[in-house]
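U., I forgot to send this yesterday:
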Amino acid sequence: ILKQVVTPLKVVAANSALRLRAILDFEDDDEEKRTAGDEWLFEGPGTYIPRKEVVIEETVRATVIRPNQAIRLRARKETIDRQGVARVTGEEWLVKKTGAYLPGAYEEVVDVVNAYVLTDKKALHMRSLRTFKDDFGVTRKNGEEWLIKMTDTETHIPNVYEEVVGVVNITTLTSRQYCIILDPSDEHGRPQLGRKKLVKGECSFFLLPGERFERGIQNVYVLGEDEGVILRATESFKDTDAPDEKDVERKPGDKWMIRGPAEYVPPAKVEVIMKRTAI
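Result:
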């Protein structure tokens, strides 16, 4: 007695597969033991011969990975991926190799990820979602933020454990400009909270994560012979620009004047109260 009507055999094309599931324990033609619930792929090209112990779950098709692209995969249960790496349930990873990729029986495609193209005027502001080692071999801690510039790589595909916070544009100062940066980072990229840093032009730089301008980009004070600026110290420091050319210890609240002709850039611990012209 026929349990079901006669159906044609399934022809599986290249770059596609049938995801199969065992409903009974059995040993297949290759002497591999299958347990009820096991899943595997029958990959094309080929013709699939059905078995009573097996049901077809779905047809799986390859995803094409183009240059500067990657696919993000997730493990549906513990498995060994196509690179031979053991993956645990829920783990995600990227495949960047260009060409067609056929997900394994316990893999699912989460997304296709496009690369960010970097230039000498744009950088990527990144944030770590957990502790991991990035594409450049640097260990990033959970919540850590950093920049990726064109000097690091021309294109970047974000790792599954990092996110792009935004694109940072370069800041360019002319020879007549300066700026003061609040909470500047040290040489290791750690923010120095509460500190200030004076940057004079001519130069170009990227603001690092956590840094910000105190008052944006400022113009250098160009003083004529009959002009001057009144200054006030906001913190204690040694003034090397004193009018009498001797170092002067300034204390918070101290006031003094710089007279022209001169080009003057106030240090980070000094504020300009006003500019005056002789009567």
